[in-house]
Amino acid sequence: MQKITTFLTYKKGAEDAAKLYTSLFKNSRIVSTTRYGEGSPEPAGGVMTVEFELEGQRYVALNADSPTFTFTDGISLSVSCDDQAEVDRLTERLTAGGGEVGQCSWIKDRWGVAWQITPRVLGEMLGDKDPEKAKRVLQAMLKMKKIDIAELKRAYAGETAKV
Q: Which of 35, 47, 130, 153 is most buried when burial is the number of CB atoms within 10 A of its CB?
């Protein structure tokens, strides 16, 4: 059993969110669902929690319509992507239905959960021993919303950007 589990509190939509998330990643599943009972602060029979796994990592989603529970950019789920197709697919699916793409592939899904959808190669290029290469990649990335791997590679190589 996992010692520390990320607990996400939604005003509503925890079950829909868990279903979407588990559909996007391999080795993912819904583990269990609990429902509110009579006398609880939410309607009886409604989903209270959904425990799920994404790539083997456990999460719990709670429905609690309270103004004290909100998502902020102070915490995000970071996804290391293998290629542009994965960046594109995750960005499209996570922002569908009201989400938004922010600077540097920092996105919010329709429930307000912040995600960082970044290609693995970005970290490799930013960590290059040649500070000029890393600087060019950083400058290119800072101009992007959704990350464009081909454009990052051009910057890394010192080529001019495609217009």
A: 47
CATH of domain 1-70: 3.30.720.100
- Domain residue ranges of the chain, discontinuous segments joined by +: 1-70, 72-163
Rounded distance, CA 3 to CA 63, Å?
22
The predicted pLDDT at position 163 comes to 54
Question: What are the start-end ranges of the H helices in 13-148?
Answer: 14-24, 84-95, 120-126, 131-142
Classified by CATH at the fold level, domain 72-163 comes out as 2,3-Dihydroxybiphenyl 1,2-Dioxygenase; domain 1 (3.10.180)
Tokens found for residue 58: 């456990």
How confident is the chain (163 residues) per 10-residue block, as mean pLDDT? 92 96 97 96 92 97 90 94 97 97 95 96 96 97 96 94 63
- Asked whether this chain's domains 1-70 and 72-163 adopt the same fold, the reply is no
